[in-house]
Amino acid sequence: MTVNFAHRGASGYYPENTMLSFKKAIEMGCTGIETDVQMTRDGSLILMHDERVDRTTNGTGFVKDFSFDDIRKLDAGGFFSKEFAGEKVPAIEELIELVKDKDIVINFEIKSGIIIYDKIEEKLIDTIYKYGIEKKVILSSFNHYSMVMCKRLSKEIKTGLLYMEGIYRPERYCRFVGADALHPYFYTLRKEVIDEIKRENVMINTFTVNEERYMKYLLKEKIDGIITNYPDKLKKLMEES
Ligand code: G3P
Ligand code: CA
């Protein structure tokens, strides 16, 4: 069965990467949650997409320059709608507490692009083991070196390679890197590519699929996971198909 990953929670309807957005996604029936992990100045893992707080909060500056206490003072809901003002930037532990006893997979995307966070892989993996959720987590990143580092730290925690453009024989690249899954942008998934990847038994979790016509195509092709801002729409199509 395809995993219905709520992208930054139910972010089509609620402020992304907030506890509200995650809770609403669960109410909508998602079976997975995708979220972005970054690190504060004092080494706390928090959930936010951008390296800067500017777009999704009332603050300004880089996550890496905020202490945890200061980032928690920001409003992470008002940018989306006044109605949601007062939502906070979640600590990773809050999401884990919400999900750990539920039949829901978490996809932690390690943000490691402009900013490289020192030892973020170690911290994330320690947190995962602390909560005993190693079997229900998949890590991903556009920084494939980060995924190699995660695999060195834990063989059993699954890893996925994010990419935007078409790669020739991505399943071979995935094996070469030692990852468990490909996390491609859905436009790269023409039928022949899907067939080649499947032939090598490599898992595919694709992003970010918000239109029903693409959801239908990917469900027909039995993709392992679909990452969407609208988990309710995907759930409905899954029930109909
Ligand atoms: O993990 C899938 C997707 O979230 C990757 O892109 O920019 O939305 O984090 P982005
Ligand atoms: Ca992401």
TrEMBL record:
Residues 2-238 form the GP-PDE domain. This is Glycerophosphoryl diester phosphodiesterase. Pfam families: GDPD (PF03009). GO terms for molecular function: phosphoric diester hydrolase activity. GO terms for biological process: lipid metabolic process.
